[in-house]
Design a protein that fits this description.
Shape: globular
Structural class: alpha+beta
Order of helices and strands: EHEHEEEHHHHHHHEEEEEEEHHHH
Strand content: 15-25%
CATH architecture of one domain: 2-Layer Sandwich
CATH topology of one domain: Enolase-like, domain 1
Largest sheet: 5 strands, antiparallel
Distance between the termini: 38 Å
């Protein structure tokens, strides 16, 4: 049985208390949201903070505000996002992303902020401490070598968050609070392509909310590839957001990829291939080819990496057909192994 290491537990009721406690020793303190990622990591000794600052008791982090912008508190659970019909109507892609995270039990605990800050994953990292010690520890924890690519100067663990690619495609931003104040960061700037230092959030900051700009005229969709139709992390994912003119021509578009690098990636070229065109099969195929070019999956998760790269085309095609309005229920069952009600 894997047991938790000893730690001090603190339960603030306000963001001010949370950032003050975090500032006391940020290098030895971690934030606990839903705990669905951090607690297993602590049991495997991947993360061993001396102090946990739990955010669940902070009510201000649990609000959803439907104004000109859609503002979602970082402590809002994924289940609540799935059950919010106004959010589903405004941002169907985000609803799809949240609905495909793990299982209902984990969505009941997991939060949007926690999913955005999800630790990167790798076959050589997500194992017990004894297993990792037996092969010699990897670069991400206690070792010096990335076992995915032994000559790599940086860790290649993969970003497996479902909601980040979708929020990237929606043009969202987040607010980060610390004792020195609050700053706004575009979701795209929250990440960097490094499996160990994948977040630009400072260790003394708390992610407080996510702000999505007005989605009038936009249509969005999220598709993921995984072995099972529930529970599993994505091994490739695609998020698209498209705004069309009255004549059906695409005026703006964003195509984002997940689980093919250490950060979610925007494909500017894929977006460019759509702008000015109606969403014909030919335009969709051109965007899928452009997205395929930037996908760089590594051999550090489920399925063969070249096949996962090829599946990016299929996922982009499916997502764009989804926003076009095609009936893709059978296709989603076949590719994503899931039916979204």
């Amino acid at each position: 049985m894997m047991r938790l290491p000893p730690f001090r537990f603190r339960a603030p009721r306000t963001v001010d208390d949370a950032v003050a406690w975090l500032a006391e020793s940020p290098a030895e303190t971690m934030l606990l949201a839903g705990g669905t990622d951090l607690i297993p990591n602590m049991k495997r000794r991947q993360q061993t903070p001396r102090t946990l600052v739990a955010l669940r008791g902070i009510e201000s982090l649990k609000t959803i505000r439907h104004g000109e912008d859609l503002t979602i508190g970082a402590g809002v659970t994924l289940t609540r996002i799935v059950r919010d019909e106004r959010l589903r109507a405004a941002c169907p892609g985000l609803w799809q992303a949240a609905a495909q995270v793990a299982t209902p039990h984990l969505r009941n605990m997991g939060t949007l902020g926690g999913n955005l800050c999800l630790d990167t994953r790798c076959t050589y990292y997500d194992q017990s401490r004894e297993w990792r010690r037996a092969i010699d520890f990897c670069m991400k924890k206690d070792g010096r070598t990335c076992w995915v690519a032994t000559s790599s100067p940086r860790c290649l663990a993969v970003s497996s968050t479902d909601t980040a690619p979708m929020l990237l495609a929606l043009g969202a931003r987040v607010h980060l609070a610390s004792v020195t104040g609050t700053r706004a960061v575009d979701v795209g700037d929250l990440y960097q392509n490094d499996g160990m230092r994948y977040l630009t959030r400072r260790s003394d900051e708390v992610l407080t909310d996510i702000v999505i700009p007005p989605q009038i005229g936009w249509r969005s969709a999220y598709w993921k590839l995984r072995r099972r139709g529930s529970f599993d992390f994505p091994v490739a994912s695609v998020a698209v957001a498209v705004r069309a003119d009255p004549d059906g021509r695409v005026a703006a578009a964003r195509v984002a990829l997940g689980a093919v690098a250490s950060r979610p990636l925007l494909s500017p070229r894929a977006s460019e291939m759509l702008i000015g065109h109606v969403l014909t099969d030919e335009a969709i195929a051109a965007a899928a080819d452009a997205a395929y070019d930037i996908a760089k999956p590594m051999d550090n998760t489920d399925f063969e990496l070249l096949w996962r790269k090829k599946m990016v085309k299929a996922l982009v095609t499916a997502a764009l057909r989804d926003v076009r309005g095609d009936d893709v229920r059978e296709l989603r069952q076949r590719i994503a192994r899931q039916t979204l009600a």
